[in-house]
Amino acid sequence: PPPPRPPRGSLIVLEGLDRSGKTSQCARLVSHLQDKEGLPVEAWRFPDRTTCVGSMIAAYLANQSQLDDRAIHLLFSANRWEKRVLMESKLKSGTSLVVDRYSYSGVAFSAAKGLDIEWCKAPEVGLIAPDLVLFLDVPPEKAAERGGYGTERYEQLEFQKEVAKHYNLLRDPTWEVVDGSLPLEAVEEQIRRLTMDSIVTCQKGKPLANLWL
Ligand code: FDM
C-alpha cells in the first residue's frame, strides 16, 4: 500500500494597501506558527524579486524601466506561475504558506490603472486558490499618514485610493476582512485565530482548488 500522505498545508494570503501592516503581520504570523504551534510553515511574497522575471518587476517598480501596463501585468502573473509547481508540492507535503500579496494585488493594481478587470483576471486562472484570504482593511488616508511611503512607483495616495476601490470590487464573502486600524496585537490575534481554523480545515482534507472561485 502507498505510504499515508501527510495532511496538506494551507495557503494563507494577506492582502491590503501599502502600509496596511501586511508585511509585519506576515512575519509575526509565521514566527508564531513555527515557534509556538510547531507547524511547518514558510513565508512567501509576491512579487518574488529573486527570479529573472522578478528582477524585471523590481526594475519597473523602482522606475528604472518603463513597460506597457499590460506587459507588466503579465510579468507579475508569470512570476506567480513560475512558483506554482513549488507551491503545490509544498502544500501537498504538509507545509503551510503565508503569502504577502497574490493574484488580488495583481488585479487590483492593474485595474486601478484602467485595465479591464476580466482581462486582468484571465492570466491568473488555474493558479492555486488560497484557502484563506486575509484583507487588512485600512483607509488609504490613514495608511498614508503612517508615513514611510517609499519612492516606488505605486506609493502615492491618489493611486492607492484607486487600488482600494478595486480591492472592494474583488472582495467576496469568503474573504476575512480584518480592521487594520486596530492595535497591532489585536490584528495579530484575529489573524492567528483565522489561520489556525484554516490550517485545521485543510488538515481534515479540504481539497486544493484553482482560481478563480
Ligand atoms: N503589485 C504586486 C502589483 O502591481 N501586481 C502584483 O501582482 C503584485 C503581487 O507591486 F505596489 C504591486 C503592489 C506593490 C508593489 O509590492 C510591490 P511589495 O509588497 O511592496 O513588494
UniProtKB/TrEMBL annotation:
Biased segments, Pro residues type: 1-7
Domain Thymidylate kinase-like: residue ranges: 14-191
Phylogenetic lineage: Eukaryota, Viridiplantae, Streptophyta, Embryophyta, Tracheophyta
Top-level enzyme category: transferase
Protein name as catalogued: Thymidylate kinase
Shown stretch of the complete protein: 68 to 280 of 282
A GO CC term attached to the entry: nucleus
Source domain of life: Eukaryota
Record flagged with keyword Ribosomal protein: no
Example of a GO biological process term: dTTP biosynthetic process
Entry keyword set: ATP-binding, Kinase, Nucleotide biosynthesis, Nucleotide-binding, Transferase
EC annotation from Swiss-Prot or TrEMBL: 2.7.4.9
Organism whose genome encodes this protein: Iris pallida (Sweet iris)
Pathway given in the UniProt record: Pyrimidine metabolism; dTTP biosynthesis
Assigned protein family: Belongs to the thymidylate kinase family.
